[in-house]
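Record type: monomer structure entry
Structure origin: computed from sequence
Chain ID: A
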Amino acid sequence: MVHDFGFIWYIALTDGIVSSILLAAACWLINNNLRYYQPGKGSYINLLMWCLSLAGICTAGCRWIIPYLSISTVYMHFLSQSLTIRFFTDFLAIGWMAMISMLWYSQQDHKQTEKRKSEAEKLARDAELYNLRQQLQPHFLFNSLNSINALIGFKPNEARKMIHQLSDFLRGTLKKDDQLLVPLNDELQHLNLYLDIEKVRFGHRLDTEISCDKHCGEGLLPSMLLQPIVENAIKFGLYDTTEKVTVSIRGEIEGNNLVIMVQNPYDPQTSRPKGTGFGLRGVQRRLYLLFARNDLMETHQNDNIFTTIIKIPQV
């Protein structure tokens, strides 16, 4: 533009370079300040004053620096006449930089805040999941130890067998502590260790039926999810009766869900299987924490059969 006004290239380049350096320095300064300081709603006037001040400094810099590099009476007159336009041009450029910087850094701060919030929620969720799993173990462990204590006197071989089974079960539990999702086949294999221990406790009174087709065997589910459900079925099925009880476990794939059904008979006169015990509540809580859904577990009572159905989305 300076060249188009009839000045030689030397004067035009000198003007352009000095103006650009001053404007770039002002933009860098406003950008660097906004990186560490985000103005609040009542502080935008301060930002406006900063932009006006920097635009004034850029204009004054051009007014006092360029004449030392390019001496021309005509150009000096042109420079003096263009100071107002230079000021508003610098102000617009610095203002645009301030606005872009403010939006950019506020967006980055928002992303960092959301990331920290997400990490904090994940830590809290993992801690709660860990606590839920830890609370499931003592109840089963105490029952098993009491059963071993009862067997030692008159069935020492059965007590010894139960100790080995309990050891294998607890060892498998420790191996699964770091696993969030496991194949259904592995979960059923581990569940069989638990059922073997319970069969030692209840003898011929406990029978189990497990059916799982080849398609759902590789379906993934949270580790140690079935044990509290089966424990609940045994509790309400056997504790108030002396007859033989069959607990059935069936798995199948429905759409994008792995569906597992656990059924047990119960006596409505002595049992109250309302699904409010810690075991089922813990399972429902784990499913919510992992999948953020409250519709993944349901219970039904029909013809003296208590049914627990869980659905695990396969992502």
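Annotation 1: The first strand starts at residue 181 and ends at 183.
Annotation 2: The first helix runs from residue 9 to 36.
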